[in-house]
Amino acid sequence: MIAKDTHYDAIVVGAGFGGIYMLKKLIDQGLRVKVLDAAGDVGGTWYCWDKEDLLEYHWDEHYIKQPQALAYLEHIVERHNLRQYMQFDTELTSAQYNEDTNAWEVSTSTNETFTCHYLVTALGLLSKRNFPAIHGLDKFKGEKYHTGGWPKTYDFKGKRVGIIGNGSTGVQVITQLGKEKQVAKLISFQRSPQYSVPSGDGPVSPTYRSQINENYESIWSQVRNSAVGFGFEESTVPCMSVTPAERQAKFQEAWDKGNGFRFMFWTFNDLTMDPAANDEACNFIKSKIKETVKDQEKARKLLPNEYYARRPLCDAGYYQVFNQDFVDVVALKEEPIVRMTENGIETTKGHYDLDVLIFATGFDAVDGNYTRVAVKGRNSESLSEHWATVGPESYMGVSVANFPNLFMITGPNGPFSNIPPAIEIHVEFIADTIALAEKNHQHQTQPQPNNEKGSIVEATLEAERGWTDLCNEYSKDSLFRKSPSWIFGANVPGKKYSSLFFFGGLKDYREKLQKMVDGGYVGYKPF
Q: InterPro entries in the record, alphabetically (predicted)?
């Protein structure tokens, strides 16, 4: 009987898009790697590192839906023969850095213990589900689902469905169920009405696909050198510098093209900074809501009353579905939820009978998956303890002081941008850093203090605090900061309100990362 391997050069936690790319990079460097994931198979969404395959792979629509994204991810794993390195249905329960052996000791839900030199977490920004604190939540006897754990199949035909939450996912679910027209009743329970613009989704034409393939390198270069990484040039024009007619024309053009990030960042360069400019965008979208939703009372409830400064949403007919009699909206600020009952939701104004309750209430974003697991560094300090005073911190979204050889893909204070490009930057930086650390250690003629059992890559506390201060400086004047949003942790009761992202843009982030590397890994202890 062959003994099962328990020690690896690197363990990657998470088999989504970040984890898969990280695995590929590290095994290509000759390291022994294992991927652990709590799910039963690979997950996540698409990304761009396999150019040859992307040029050939067939995409039907501009916005890839979950089944197509998952199929592509499974295809990539099979194409590169990566499944052999993965272990599923295995959740990380704890990770302890052993200072004597310079190794991470990893425990799992399968009662296994592994050790590794490098621990890389690819847990995702949005994966720890957030549930609202509603009195009597467990009393409801109908079906309950969180959009973060959506069933592979569902049958809501003829059922009364309630949806709590109307962020990006809530908007998508409401739109889809409204279009299917199979539910008996669809009620959106929303606390804060959202600004949403058309997605611009549709079939990918052969001509469009040819243009993408012919200009692949230049498109990807533009993405990596842009602010938000969505494939368009961000505007350099202030909103109030043009005439009212020109403003309306530009907003209409963005509305017709589709995409929420395009509407926010392609139209004008100050919608997230200047309240007057923001008001112009708000008023344009509100006029579209009033124009689209025929029932005046529904339209009134759907009109946002905050800054247009949350994650910019887009949809495929969200407001239109409210023109159907079986779709309604409940404004929770006007009639708060009192309690859950066995048969539905009771508010201050009455009771809503439900057969199905869907929670589109988002996630404990960015750091939630780290603080729920006992990840302990030097002196057995956990990440939750490390972040208890000032909130989630890291050095450049990747490393944490006092946690040697721990690397986070899209950790706290990474770039606020399209996620796949940000993930690629993190994965490539981590892979290059590990390669350099291995090379330096092998070439040492004299063992270094506390380093004889392998290289130690560790950020300094000074560098971590400095990066946090910079992130706060970049966001302090942003209207994002003046809006209650998951981007600053406001969606989770009791969570410290702090900047979870670097708001300088993807290009600026890449340049700062490269400057740090070119300077000899400034902010890291010598390795």
A: FAD-binding_Monooxygenases, FAD/NAD-bd_sf, Flavin_mOase-like
